[in-house]
Amino acid sequence: MPASVREAGWIGGRRFDGFFFFGGSLVAGAMGLAALAWPVLLLPLWAAWLLLLDGPHLLATFGRTYLDTRERRERARLLAGSLLFFVPGLAAWGMLRLTGERAAFDLFLVLATLWSFHHAVRQNYGLLSLYESFARATPRERRIDTGFLYVSLWAAFGLFLLGHPENRRILGLPMELPALGRAILVGGGVTLALLSVGWLTYAALRVLRGRGARPTLFLLCAASGSALLPFFVIGPFEPLVQGPQTPEQMFMAATMVGGVMHAIQYLGIVVAANRRRFSRYEERSFAALLGRAPVVAYGLMVAVSLLYLLLNSARGASPVGSLFPEASTAGQLFLVLYWGFFFHHYYLDQRIWRVRQQPSLRYEFGLEEAA
What we know:
Shape: globular
Distance between the termini: 20 Å
Number of helices: 19
Number of strands: 0
Radius of gyration: 21 Å
């Protein structure tokens, strides 16, 4: 059994966790700052993120489900029923084509944006919960950390939506905020800053008492990669591309920063869980072969992600080299198919990573050693 599998108190091992769950924010930040300093790098970095991280992280869910013999047998109804999450987008696209009204289509895109961020917050919550378990955190410590995670990330998201002029234009709000709007924005920012200082003080005192160092560090990394860097460091300077044609192109760098950290985390979760799962069970499925050879599995996912790059090009995501304009019939069809894959991914993830309901996951995440 690999050394990292035997290390107690870590999801995948000290060095493994250091890269996938703590260092991901540094990688994301470095890419964002590079794009900010040299905007000409944004498109190559964005394409690299899609090919090397975003596509593989999406495909990793299929490795844990459809390619796994045991999962197909035990979750047949879930795997079949979850495909219905392609329907809402196709229905919204169909209504747009039939009626010419964008209300349903735009509502679908709003839902996609909110669910995407919720999915990232929930992943951070899940990882934080694991580190809290390793640290034997008290119920009170868990409530404080969890509350800060949720409130700080969603508050930062809300402040960015209200604070950036392009977001206000997209939402139909005044480009120049009235006095009340500015007061809400400033008040929200001050409140978030005070909340952050309060939590940092509490966390520092807890660490000085010899408790919770790892959950505290993880929460700092999660808040930096999911909120501080994309919303307050990179986002205010967007758009970095010339002549953005879509809302997504206006915030490509900020989206990339959050997406890089999220994808690195997710790949780490899958690799760590698979290594433990297939060291315990002598399976000969394709999923087991890939689980025991993560480098080979990653190479295959990158190769398949060339199709994911093609899908992004077909939906008009890139300001250069798109197959169809985003506003065209074909571009909008590929856009809803793109979000259909992610809706499917989001739903499956919230069902297959339930540690309390699935005892086998306790072993796969190293919680048996912590019990």
